Amino acid sequence: MARLLILAVVVVSYLAGNMAHARQEYKTAVIYYNEACGGCDAYLKEKLVPYLENNGITVTMRDYVNEKDARKDMNYLHEELGIPLELQSHIMTFVDNGKLVLGGHVPINRVDELFLAERLPDRIVVYQDQMLEMKGVDTKKVTYTVWQPNIETKEYRLDVSMSEYLGKWESGELESANSKEKPILPLVLVTGLLDGINPCAIAVMIFFIAFLFTLQAKIGKILKYGVIYILVIYLTYLGIGFGLFKAVIISGAPHLMAKIGSWLVIALGLVNVIGYLLPKFPIKAQIPRFTQGSLKKWLTKVTLPAVIVGAFLVGLCTFPCSGGIYVAIIGLLASQKTFAQGMWYMLIYNVMFVVPLIVLLALTGNRYALGRLAKWQSDTSVKLKLWSGMAMIALGIVILIWFI
Prior knowledge:
alpha/beta, 2 domains, 9% strand, elongated
C-alpha cells in the first residue's frame, strides 16, 4: 500500500511538472516587421527566428509596410491585448496569439528564460527597442521592460535575468498598476475647460447671439441655431483631435509628442503673457485676421447651412489660439492609454471644451445678463489672455514634471 502511495505521488508530481512546462510549449509565432529595416534583419534571421523554430514553433513573417492588411492586424492585436503604445515596437512578435509578446530586439537569453520558466502570467510583454546588433551600442546602458495587464511595469538592465521579475510575480510582490497611475481624468477636465475659455470662440459666440437679438429672432430659433453651432464646433474640434491622435500613433513616439505639446503649451502661454506686457508684440495667438471677415459673413446670414459652415470655420480657426493644450493632452493619452481609452478621454475633453459656449447659450433668455457678459468679455479680453497664458505655462510645466 505504501509503495502504491509513493508511486502515485511520483506520477502526480511528474504530470504536474510536465503540465507546468507544457504551458511554455508554444505552437505559433507571428512576427510583424519592416523589411526595409536593415538592422532588424540580423536579429530576426540570425537569432529570433532560428530560436523559435528550434523550439518547434511555426513562424509567420508579416511585413506591415508592404503587406496590405498586416498593419491593421497588428494594430488589432495591440488593441485587443491592451498593449500600451510606448511598448509597441518596430518589430512585434506574438506567440500563440499574444500569450507571450516580444517587442523589438529582446535578447535571446531573456527569451530563453521565458520559455524555460515553470510558470508565466497569462499575458506578458517583454520590450527592448534598441538594435543591439548595431555597432557602438553600449549594452550596459540599455534596459528592457516587462509589462502585464493591471500590474506595475518594471524595467531592468539587460544583464538582469527574467527570474527576478518572475520571482516577484510569483510571490505577489508586484504592485497593481492602478496604485501608481497618475489621475488623468482631472487633468483632462481642467485642460478641456481651459482650452474652451478661448477668447476667439467666445467672442464669436457672443457676436452671433447678439446679432440674432438685433434681428428680433425668437428664443426658440436662437437656441436651435446655438445648439447646432456648438455641436458643429464640438465635432470639428473632435475631428482635429482624432486626426492628431492617429498621427501620434503612426509616429510611434507618443512620449516625444507629449513633450513637444507641453513645450508648445508653454510657448503659446508665453506669447499671451508677452502680448499683454508688450501690446505691439507681432506674434499673437488669435483667429487669423484674414478669416474674421468670412466668419462674420457666414454667421450673419442666419440660415442653417450658413451657421454650420460658420461654426466649422470657427472650430478650425480657434485651434491656433490654444491648440498646444490639445496636442499635449493627445500625446499624453497616446503614451499612457490604449486607443479606445484615449477616444473616451477625448470625448470628455471636447465636452469640457464647449461648456463655456453652453453656458453662454443658456444665458440667451436674459438679455441683460448676456449684454453684461459681452461687455465684460470686451473689457477683460486682454487680461483674459494674460490669465490664460499663465495657466498654459503652469499646465505645460505640470505635464512635463508629473505626467511624462
